[in-house]
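Why show two proteins at once? Because comparison is the fastest way to build intuition. When a single record is shown, students tend to memorize it. When two are placed side by side, the eye starts asking what differs. So, the first record is below.
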Amino acid sequence: EPDDAQRFARLGAGRIITTGNLKFDVQPPEADAKAMAALRQALQQRPVLLAASTHVGEEKMVIEAHRRLRRQTPELITIIAPRHPQRGGAIAGLAADYGFAAAMRSRGHLPDRGTEIYVADTIGEMGLLYRLAPIVFMGGSLAKRGGQNPIEPAKLGTAILHGPYVSNFAAVYGELNRMRGAATVSDAESLANSVQRLLDDPALVKQMQKTAYDTVKRMGGALERTLNAIQPYLIQLRLR
């Protein structure tokens, strides 16, 4: 007697249905309310740039971009959240080499007025960081790593910048760029120029945030389509 899995396979034999990418339907990461309130208070409404899930080589470009940006925006704080948190000490050291005061979240530090580079070398806090940063550079895209997932920051209301190497998520980055919910940068100079443009134009930031959110929402729905596609077979299995 065939089991349910075998019967299900027979019922669907010869049919291939594409329902889409389930990643669009995953809920964005949560954020601890107390931690978010503490970090928001520590930031004191300063302009914030988040560099998310960065890889080796990208932090140097981000810090160089920060150096350029502080000429016009001296209150800017750049948060760097490395893809591999164990690299936090090296990133703080790199910031020090540039003459910037850095603080490391893994050591329990919050930024103060003197902090210029805040290294968020912890795990499971991207939901918090995306909620606090209106502008994000997505890592893995200047270091030829294929880019990191932009769906989460888009759902949480950030204006997205990224490098040219986004093969891991080519379709969504392509659509975000086409709709102008994201923009491509190529090096430290273009990153600094793009961030400065956004810092100077809050209306553009809000437009990019809304467009990014609307774009990934429109690309979603795979979960519902998947459930709808398999429901008739589940009903037949129950009837049998």
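Second record. Ask yourself what differs from the first in the token line.
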Amino acid sequence: MYNKILVPLDGSSMAEEAILYALELRRLSGGALTLVHVAPSATAPPARYSMVEAGTWLLRQTQMQQGAERYLEDLAARPEVAAARAEHRVINGEPGPSLVALIEKDAFDVVVMTTRRRAKLARWVLGSTADFVVQHAPVPVLLVRQTRE
């Protein structure tokens, strides 16, 4: 059934609501659970930055990467997640395309993620990672509607 389950997380408690659904799906299917966070890419600062600004930019990107890793380690240490032996990893880039690339590269079978309640105009202007993943992922995507504001 579902051997590899992916749970994208953005650091919010709302996104974490998907973990319970993923744990239940894992229990039913016996699959492996992977928690992932997409951090902004830290490969190169924009060209118009001075050397001092570029150094500050790179330091900030490194701090964000380390913060994301600590966040996932804390989640993986929660008793219910630890019992599932969930893996975790941080990837870099734009959330939607980076997640789809990871899904394809590592052959995940299903994605479980939370979708935020937004007005249609806000969704149109800001876009939606969940919408992107649903439209581009080659696997089923279980969307969990957020219950908290």
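One difference worth noting in the second protein: The first strand starts at residue 4 and ends at 9.
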